[in-house]
Amino acid sequence: MKTKTLVPFAEGAIWARIVDPQTGGLKSASARSLLDLDFKPADRQRMEELAEKAGAGTLTAQERREAETYNRVAHLLALLQSKARLSLRTRKQR
Questions:
Q1: Contact, 3 vs 75, CB < 8 A?
Q2: Mean pLDDT throughout 10-38?
Q3: What distances in angstroms separate CA 87 from CA 5, 59, 62, 74, 77, one per listed residue?
Q4: Which member of 16, 31, 36, 52 lies 3.0 to 4.6 Å from 87 by CB, making a disulfide possible if both were Cys?
């Protein structure tokens, strides 16, 4: 993930600088635990519903905020899991 495309003060860019997903450094057990994290089926279903409504242009203001929240959480999860994958890959290469 390239943080240069994000606005430097945007929440995602700040998290990317904190997590620094382009470097490893996590212990194997921690990395595997992060890779086990995922959305529950009900949350996935809700995200799909919101995405469909967004595609149709029928989101309410509250639904738009909900979709943005899911997006931020998914982005942070992706950053953490990227770091976890790199950490495990780096350990295997040693």
A1: no
A2: 92
A3: 24, 39, 38, 20, 15
A4: 31
Domain spans of the chain, in order of start: 3-93
In this predicted structure, what is the pLDDT of residue 1?
42
Alpha helices, DSSP H, located in 1-94:
11-19, 28-36, 41-56, 61-93
Has this prediction a pTM greater than 0.85?
Answer: no
Taking the C-alpha atoms of residue 90 and residue 84, their distance in angstroms, rounded to an integer, is: 10
Tokens of 17: 């600088």
Contact by Cβ (8 Å): 1, 79: yes
pLDDT digits (tens, 9 = 90+) for 28-72: 999 999 999 999 999 999 999 999 999 999 999 999 999 999 999
Q: Which pair of structure tokens corresponds to residue 43?
A: 């949350």
